[in-house]
User: What shape does this take?
Amino acid sequence: MRVLVTGGSGYVGSHTVRELAAAGHEVVIYDNLSTGDRRLSEGFEFIEGEIADGARLAPVLDRVDAVMHFAASAYVGESMTDPRKYFRNNVESALKLIDAVLASPVRTFVFSSTCAVYGIPQACPIDEESRKEPINPYGATKLFFEHVLEAYRVTHGLRYVALRYFNAAGAHASGLIGEIHDPETHLIPLALKAALGSAPPLTIFGSDFDTPDGTCIRDYTHVSDLGSAHVLALEHLAEGGASMSVNLGTGRGTSVREIVDVFHALTGIRIPHQYGPRREGDPPCLYANPARANEVLGWVARRNLEDILTSAWGWHQKFESKTA
Assistant: This one.
């Protein structure tokens, strides 16, 4: 299939592009490079543009079979201080994208969603039927667009899968692409940058949560495993499978303290760190029940925490040396 990948120069998008290509699909990357990095798209057809630009999208949509939509503002903290940006990019512009899709022959759509749609969970693991009460504008915008997709399924015959990630982590096995964010807010790259001395000591927010070691527990999933799930979602729809929302996670929680300790065990290097106060709205525990992904898509996260840390460490060593 020919697939238009919006935000294909971003972290998860660029890894998914490689998984699509490995599975024999053709890819067109569409990105405005506001947060993506052009280097992550090398070797693929690339079009620079805004997802709200229907005139620019129209001729591209006429020559593809499906859309994968990653392009979005995606910083939880920023969404709290600049909600206008998030509603403008993740809702207003995304609605213009879906209007362009509906004006084309394309009716297959895979959406990059998030576990932030659940807010603070009542219990873990979280399944797709768990209560959805986002506590930040980022999660609210993603949930809104999921509702849009479902409404357009009913009225316009759109067929979709919305993939709710938990914590994307790691880097591609080739070592050619990895995580590039500015600013960087994700735990693992911040920890590895601290280990390299290119960033301040890691701040661990909260040491008194109701968890075995007092630090937050999250579900870290290798980014290439997330990419493979998008390919399976695409093929599920191509084979006539039902539209749905699906959790993507390992089903296992890992604490912040475990990240620090496992990295030291793997490399012999200690991550400089300090403890700070809890961040408002941080749940103690957040990890997925991936049963639907396993059963319906045939997807299982194949890489473990050691794989995530090893691949990320290799990438950051290389990337930091180039930018030093």
Observations:
- The first strand starts at residue 2 and ends at 6.
- The mean pLDDT is 95.
- The domain at 187-218+251-323 is CATH 3.90.25.10 (UDP-galactose 4-epimerase; domain 1).
